[in-house]
Every structure is written in C-alpha cells, then in structure tokens.
Design goal:
elongated; 4 helices; transmembrane; mainly alpha; transmembrane helix; 0% strand; membrane
Length: 118
C-alpha cells in the first residue's frame, strides 16, 4: 500500500491533537476530542470519493485504525495530563474506534461479495 501525502497529513494531525490533549494544560479537552473524531471520520471517508480500489481503502482504514489505537495507548501511558479527552477511558475514543471497525467490516464484506458500493 502506498501512502499519499494526504495520508501523512491526517496521521500527523491526529498525532498533534493527541500531543495537545495529553501535554497542554490550557487545551479544552472536550473540543479537541471532538475534532479528533471529526478527523477520524474524514480519514475513513475521503478515499471513497477518489479513484481508489476497495482493497486500498480497506488497507488504509486498517492501518490508520491500528496506528490510532497504538498512539492512544502510548500517549495514555506516558501522558502527564490528569484528565485527557482522548484516552483509553474516554467514550469518544471508543466511539471513533467502533465507527472505524464497523467501516472495516463493511469494506471487507464488499470485497468478499465482489460489490463496489461506496
């Protein structure tokens, strides 16, 4: 799978949001967590409207979901903010991961059935 510059920008934006959420005391954690969810929703959908195969979309979604989970685990373990908005105990994180997993299952079923319903 070839990552495009947009993919790196999305992953960097998620990393920046996690850094701000876990290490900046002045940050409004609830707003940052909803921006995080918005970026995840965008990352799940932006390749669907381009000329990409369903298999490439599935690979991107699996890779980005795995990277997000690993980043949240690492930042939760090393973060110094007492109550971050994005952590292993926040509902927003589980909402975004659940949304991502549902989309992964949907894309996988499309590949298995041979359909191309985006």
């Amino acid at each position: 799978m070839n990552l495009k510059p947009n993919d790196y920008v999305i992953l960097a934006l998620l990393l920046i949001l996690l850094v701000i959420d876990h290490f900046m005391d002045w940050a409004p954690h609830n707003i940052i967590s909803w921006i995080f969810v918005g970026v995840i929703i965008y990352s799940l959908n932006y390749k669907k409207y381009k000329d990409t195969s369903i298999k490439e979309i599935l690979n991107w979604q699996a890779l980005s979901t795995a990277i997000i989970v690993v980043m949240v685990i690492v930042f939760t373990l090393i973060g110094n903010e007492a109550n971050p908005g994005i952590s292993l105990t926040s509902g927003v994180f589980y909402f975004s991961i659940l949304l991502s997993v549902f989309d992964l299952v949907y894309q996988w079923r499309q590949i298995k059935q041979g359909t191309n319903d985006r």
